[in-house]
Amino acid sequence: MPLTRRQHQILDYLNSYTAEHGYAPSFEEIAEHFNYNSLATVHEHLTNIERKGYIKRSYNESRAIEILPSDLVSKAVELPLLGAVAAGMPIEAATSDETVSVPEDFVRRAGNHYVLRVRGQSMIEDSIADGDLVVVHDRPAADNGEMVIAMIDGASATVKRYYRERDGRIRLQPANEQMAPIYVREDQMQVRGIVVGVLRRY
Amino acid sequence: MPLTRRQHQILDYLNSYTAEHGYAPSFEEIAEHFNYNSLATVHEHLTNIERKGYIKRSYNESRAIEILPSDLVSKAVELPLLGAVAAGMPIEAATSDETVSVPEDFVRRAGNHYVLRVRGQSMIEDSIADGDLVVVHDRPAADNGEMVIAMIDGASATVKRYYRERDGRIRLQPANEQMAPIYVREDQMQVRGIVVGVLRRY
DNA sequence: GTAGACTACCGAATATGACCCGAAGTAACA
DNA sequence: TGTTACTTCGGGTCATATTCGGTAGTCTAC
């Protein structure tokens, strides 16, 4: 059920108002925003938008407009920001219950995900800068060449590229020519997940 | 079930009070905070907020307000993917009605946004790689040092950093030492927006 | 071209919830 | 057994949503 131009504009307004205030606008506020002289106009539009399945309303209640997820307003997932990770430095403890909202299509179907803030320049040649957020798919194993969160000796976490060498050792390769790769035995490290996405805000 | 303005304010207060003290406020404290003369008012509000599923209360017990985890499936916005932009190359026409879902907190309150796919290495030193998606805030002007989408001579779009020189010309600075800055007169270029975020998927 | 069907709008009357009060009632707890 | 806190009741006002009866304009099908 496609929306008309006007209906689309109104749905957009509902979205931004709700995002800003935490509650839906009243009919009068909608009318004022679109320069309507009658609330009946608002009512009719909302009725049509509801009939098409984009919002849900409860009868005769104030500001009772619920925006349903759709193509226009798709969902995002709130992933926990577990801390920061830097080359050779331990993961900082999660300061609080902070979360980061990530577009739904960033995460894989199966498995858990979390977010880490990258510290330092160790992956700079893979275009991951200091302060970037990486979306991590929680997995205990990786394939050659994947970017992993690696815990070494159970104490120190880093983000590196993962390579299994012919002699059975693991090479953890930074993307910074000034840094040397780390070689460890398989039992000295654990894969804590692989990086599936990067987010940066200016 | 969305809240009204007042209900939202009260829920906010419950949240901050509980975060600070470790326990919920009494009715009297709520009444005092909102300058109510009757506890009945508090009671009615809490009843409504509970009916809408944001809190849970046990009958007649002191400070027995439990704030339920609002499964705030935080939303994402579907922004149009207008095409690709590379150094010195025109914006490719939008192939279709493709959209990209972006976390809501990526976009500014006001104004329109769109997404472009970056081609080439021109911003590589700012850690924007070939294939990355940039979220652009549609604006006709920029401040010094901001990363802009610049249209030169109405034909060729690039992503560069924007600097206004003392002689009035504009310097469009790539983040790649192998590329030279572009100097243009102000009337030779238009700012089509500033980059507010970067997304990358592996 | 014209008859539906639909979108978009208006103004006024009406209905109901949101919001507030004071006072009396009741459960919990020390 | 009080004291404290929450609950219920009856009463208001105002904000807000709903309904009704209209006017236009724009499509589409016959």
Pair of chains with the largest interface and how many residues each contributes: A-B, 47 and 38 residues
Q: Determine the N-to-C terminus distance of chain A.
A: 37 Å
Q: Compute the number of strand runs of chain A.
A: 11
The largest sheet of chain A, given as strand count, sense and whether it forms a barrel, is: 9 strands, mixed
- The arrangement of helices and strands of chain A along the chain is HHHEEEEEEEEEEE
**Number of helical elements of chain A:** 3
Structural class of chain A comes to: alpha+beta
* Unreliable parts of chain A: none
Oligomer: homodimer
Strand content of chain A: 25-35%
Q: What is the mean pLDDT of chain A?
A: 88
Strand order of the largest sheet of chain A: 4-3-5-6-11-7-8-9-10
Helix content of chain A: 10-25%
Give Rg of chain A in angstroms: 24 Å
Q: Give the overall shape of chain A.
A: elongated
Plain-language structure description:
Two copies of one chain form a homodimer. Chain A is an alpha+beta fold and 202 residues long. Chain A is 18% helix and 34% strand. Chain A has three helices and eleven strands; from the N terminus they run αααβββββββββββ. Chain A has helices at residues 5-21, 27-33, 39-51, and strands at residues 55-57, 65-67, 76-86, 99-103, 113-119, 133-137, 147-152, 156-164, 170-173, 182-184, 189-201. In chain A, the strands form two sheets. The first copy, chain A, has a nine-stranded mixed sheet, with no helix packed on it. A two-stranded antiparallel ribbon of chain A has the order 1-2. In chain A, a hairpin with an 8-residue loop joins β9 (170-173) and β10 (182-184). In chain A, α2 (27-33) packs across α3. The longest helix of chain A is centred in the N-terminal third of the chain and has 17 residues, at 5-21. Chain A is elongated. The two termini of chain A are 37 Å apart. The model of chain A has no long low-confidence stretch (mean pLDDT 88). The A-B interface holds A 15-16, 18-24, 58, 62-67, 69, 71-78, 100-106, 124, 126-129, 132, 147, 195-202 and B 1-5, 7-8, 12, 72-78, 100-106, 109, 124, 126-129, 132, 147, 195-202. Chain A binds a DNA duplex (30 and 30 nucleotides) through α3.
